[in-house]
Design goal:
It is found in: Cytoplasm. Self-associates. Interacts with BBS9; the interaction mediates the association of LZTL1 with the BBsome complex and regulates BBSome ciliary trafficking. Belongs to the LZTFL1 family. The protein is mainly alpha-helical. It contains 7 helices and no strands.
Length: about 300
């Protein structure tokens, strides 16, 4: 293609396009051959045919072949438009305006040169196979501004991957903090439950003791009442006194319960547990703020 003024790169591009067009042409010729073969296999099964039958077969074959050829011509025209689109798009990126001379498309001399070049380029299947094994050329639109744009896209993708990895790390840290918080809360609940069971046991013992005292007093009262009616008033006074003592003891028990709870809140275990919960809540709030910051950046 030196007579056309192409450099080596453009010559390879032309060869690639000619190889593509040649493969499409061979495929379409095979399709047309199959149309004739189908006619032979399906209709030419008798020894003699009338003029009308032959005319009908030829007309049917003509319609099929015409459709195949028309489809290929339309597809070739559209393919050429896509090729021009690539070239024009590349030129417009560099503010170039390409021009075409339609009359040169019917230049017989140039067409014959192209035909001779195609024959020389694809004269043997071995050479065509060798050409097909060549490494693919880079797309037309690679280079210049496009190459810089691709580099910037790659850099942004790498940065995005780093941010995603950082986000996953923060999510794992937040999940770990939440799990640790749940464990601490569970431990605190278990401790409070144990304390509550102990206090309930003490309350039950005190109540049982008071119930026993009241029962004894009632028994004594009944005995005294049976023994002497004269001491009934004293027994009643004793009973009232015992009831007052019971109320006083209950008040003391309530105060003791409050005092015990107050002492428990002043213990080192309770304060440590409370400080751990406070720190974990602050860590979780900080991690959530950082997550919201990274999500807004993305």
């Amino acid at each position: 293609m030196a007579e056309f003024g192409f450099n080596e790169h453009h010559q390879k591009e032309v060869i690639n396009y000619m190889r593509f067009a040649r493969s499409k042409r061979v495929l379409r010729l095979k399709t047309i051959d199959s149309c004739f073969q189908d006619l032979k296999d399906s209709r030419l099964v008798e020894d003699t045919f009338t003029v009308d039958e032959v005319t009908e077969m030829l007309e049917g074959l003509q319609a099929v072949v015409r459709g195949e050829v028309e489809t290929e011509l339309i597809n070739t025209a559209h393919t050429n438009v896509l090729l021009l689109r690539q070239l024009f798009s590349q030129a417009e990126k560099f503010y170039l305006k390409l021009q075409t001379d339609i009359s040169e498309l019917e230049n017989r001399e140039l067409l014959e040169q192209v035909a001779e070049f195609e024959k020389g380029e694809f004269k043997t299947t071995g050479k065509a196979s060798q050409e097909s094994n060549r490494p693919k050329l880079a797309p037309l639109n690679e280079g210049g501004a496009s190459e810089l744009l691709n580099k910037e896209i790659s850099r942004m993708q790498e940065e995005n991957d780093r941010l995603k990895a950082r986000l996953r790390t923060l999510e794992l840290q937040a999940t770990g903090a939440l799990d640790e918080k749940s464990k601490v809360e569970k431990a605190l609940k278990d401790l409070q439950k144990i304390q509550g069971d102990q206090q309930l046991s003490l309350h039950s013992q005190e109540i049982n003791s008071l119930d026993d005292t009241v029962a004894v007093l009632k028994a004594d009262f009944q005995k005294s009442l049976s023994a002497s009616a004269a001491s009934q008033k004293d027994l009643q006074d004793n009973l009232v006194t015992a009831k007052h003592d019971l109320l006083r003891v209950q008040d003391q028990l309530s105060l003791a319960e409050k005092e015990l709870e107050k002492k428990f809140q002043q213990t080192a275990a309770y304060r440590n547990m409370k400080e751990i919960l406070t720190k974990k809540n602050e860590q979780i709030k900080d991690i959530r703020k950082r997550l919201q910051k990274y999500e807004s950046d993305e």
